[in-house]
Amino acid sequence: MRKYEDLFLAFWVVRIREFRTKMNLSQEKLAEKLHVNTRNYQKLERGVHKPSAITIILFLYLLSDQEIISFTRSFGQMVEKAHSQEVA
Length: 88
Fold this sequence. Notes:
- The chain is an all-alpha fold.
- Helix 2 packs across helix 3 (38-46).
- It is built from five helices and no strands.
- Helices cover 80% and strands 0% of the residues.
């Protein structure tokens, strides 16, 4: 399971940064929307800290239904690819 946590962290860092820039939000503004302080948000965006379940849910709340599906499917596909490479 640890491997998938590391995989999610790498996935998260890319997705959260993409979302913030796409929505033209500052780190401070997105931190506010996720109910974390700016310093902790910066650590989340750099991958220094793992997001909590609450932070992930609040992030998903900001997405459209289609974006949520894309987010979860993309991560699921990464897990499947990693697993198939592990088995092969």
